[in-house]
User: Which sequence fits this backbone?
């Protein structure tokens, strides 16, 4: 195995054992066993599917359906287990952004990664 692949495996192992990922998985599990959260998320997904179908058919949705969707999203975001999940997701995303930034920086000879490109500033463009 090449040194690059070995280091990639080490990085993957480090991420897999990170506090951020452990916290994210724990938060996700808590959401899964929260009956209120899972029920409301299921209803949200059903409403989103209706919206997707309508949009793909070129139909315009009544304002009432859009309002119901926004209301449901707000109620879901107020559930403590969902809030905890969102915080954990944010921490994990930040970790991954930092990892990507370090890699991009190393590949660009120390130059700052491009910001505002189509890849969200990953420096690949």
Assistant:
């Amino acid at each position: 195995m090449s040194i690059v692949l070995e280091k990639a495996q080490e990085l993957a192992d480090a991420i897999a054992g990170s506090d951020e990922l452990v916290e994210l998985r724990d938060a996700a599990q808590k959401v899964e066993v929260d009956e209120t959260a899972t029920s409301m998320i299921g209803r949200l997904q059903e409403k989103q599917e209706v919206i997707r179908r309508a949009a793909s058919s070129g139909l315009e949705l009544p304002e009432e359906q859009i309002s119901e969707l926004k209301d449901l999203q707000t109620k879901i975001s107020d559930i403590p287990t969902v809030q905890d999940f969102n915080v954990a997701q944010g921490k994990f995303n930040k970790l991954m952004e930092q990892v990507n930034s370090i890699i991009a920086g190393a590949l660009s000879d120390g130059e700052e990664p491009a910001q505002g490109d189509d890849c969200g500033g990953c420096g690949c463009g």
Remarks:
- Residues 11 and 99 are 9 Å apart (CA to CA).
